[in-house]
Structure formats: C-alpha cells, structure tokens
From TrEMBL:
The keyword Ion transport does not apply. GO terms for cellular component: large ribosomal subunit. PANTHER family: 54S RIBOSOMAL PROTEIN L1, MITOCHONDRIAL, LARGE RIBOSOMAL SUBUNIT PROTEIN UL1M. This is 50S ribosomal protein L1. InterPro entries: Ribosomal_uL1 (IPR002143), Ribosomal_uL1-like (IPR023674), Ribosomal_uL1/biogenesis (IPR028364), Ribosomal_uL1_3-a/b-sand (IPR016095), Ribosomal_uL1_arc (IPR023669), Ribosomal_uL1_CS (IPR023673). Transmembrane segments: none annotated. GO terms for biological process: translation. Part of the 50S ribosomal subunit. Probably involved in E site tRNA release. Binds directly to 23S rRNA. GO terms for molecular function: rRNA binding; structural constituent of ribosome; tRNA binding. The keyword Isomerase does not apply. CDD domains: Ribosomal_L1.
C-alpha cells in the first residue's frame, strides 16, 4: 500500500498544477479498483473519521426529544428535529427530501428509531443516510464531534470511488494523513486488500487529476 510520503507528493502536485482560484477548493481523493466482480454484490458503505481537522466540517442533524434534544441544541447541532416535527415530515415528502439532502449525517434517539424508519426510511435508506442510533444518556457532544470530522464513502456497482479529504489551504501532511486514513479503511473492505487497488488519485475541485498508479503491495 502507499505511504503518506507518496500521498504528500501527489497532493503537492495537484495544488501546484492548478491555477489560483477565488475560493478555497476541496481536495478530493479518488480510488480505482481492479479484480473485483461488481456483479456479485460488491459494495462499500463506510463512515470514516478523518484524523486531521477539516475547515468545512460535515453537517449533522439530530432527531431527538426531551433531554437529548436540549443537549443537542446546546451542543450546536446543525438541526434538531423533535418527535412532532418528525411525524409532520411524514406528510410532506418535499420538505423531507430537502432536509435529507441538506445534511451529511443523521443521528437519532434510539426511542425514535421506529418512527424514523416508518416516516423517512424510504428516503433515507437509498441515500445511505439512515440515522446512527444514540442511546439514552450518551455523550451527544462526542457523537457530534466524531461525525463532524467524518466522511461517508459509498460504492455500489462501480470500480471507483471519490471522497473529500479536506481543503487546499490545509497542510499537505494533514491532507496526506486524511487520505491515508481513507485508503487504509477501504483496503480492509476489499476482498483481497491492496491487491484490489489499481490506482489512487487526488485533485482540487476544479483542477487536474494527479495519479499515483501501480500501487505496490506491502512487503513487495
């Protein structure tokens, strides 16, 4: 598998090869797989916590009531939906879709999970956004911190994936650490590990792709 020094190199190249933009571009990582039969149900659905802080954290919506709802608001969750609001969403598919598309992650009080499944399950499921259950008295601040620092990787019926690893104004070493965390996690989900990785690439939002091909096996 690649090491962080190799990742730093292609991240530098991606930044240097792009012209200056008027906004802070996202740094994206792309992985291409090989020798995987996508027709046999190959799929990856992972939430990966990035080790280095990103400038634009993920948005988190919490479905909770009572004490948990109060704590979620105090912890500055991006949105808190109580039980009454949740029930009303069941009759308003348009508003439901707007909310589902707006937030990256959803958390829900375990007591509300049956209602969530009934009201929003058909919309959340296909998008890979079914809420993570939060037990009673769980440290909601810790949940928020973890998910804000995370990304979602979904692969189905494809031999490639792409995801955010940070922004271009981040330090190259930090971006490489995030990229390595993604690569390591995905490698463990592949049938034959790093043997199934054909190439790794990085790019800025509007920049050119920089490739790191022929990924070497460990101890090769």
């Amino acid at each position: 598998m690649v090491n962080e020094a190799q990742l730093v190199q292609i991240i530098k190249q991606a930044k240097e090869s792009d012209k200056e933009r008027k906004f802070n571009q996202t740094m994206e990582m792309i992985m291409v797989f090989k020798d995987v039969d996508v027709k046999k149900g190959f799929a990856i659905n992972e939430i990966i916590q990035l080790p280095k802080k990103i400038n634009r954290p993920a948005s988190v919506c919490i479905m909770a009531t009572g004490d948990m709802g109060i704590k979620a608001k105090k912890a500055n969750a991006d949105r808190v939906i109580n039980e009454d609001e949740l029930t009303k969403l069941g009759a308003n598919k348009r508003e439901s879709r707007k909310i589902i598309n707006k937030y990256d992650f959803f958390l829900a009080d375990t007591k509300l999970m049956p209602t969530v499944g009934k009201v929003l399950g058909q919309l959340l499921g296909p998008r890979g956004k079914m809420p993570t259950p939060v037990p009673f008295n769980a440290p909601i601040e810790s949940f928020l911190e973890r998910f804000r620092a995370s990304i979602k990787v979904r692969v189905k019926g494809s031999l490639s994936m792409s995801c955010k690893i940070g922004e271009e104004n981040m330090d190259d070493l930090d971006l490489a650490a995030n990229a390595n965390a993604v690569a390591t996690t995905i490698e463990k989900k592949l049938p034959n590990g790093n043997k199934n990785i054909k190439k790794i690439m990085v790019k800025t939002t509007m920049g050119n792709i920089v490739k790191l091909e022929q990924v070497k096996e460990k101890n090769a």
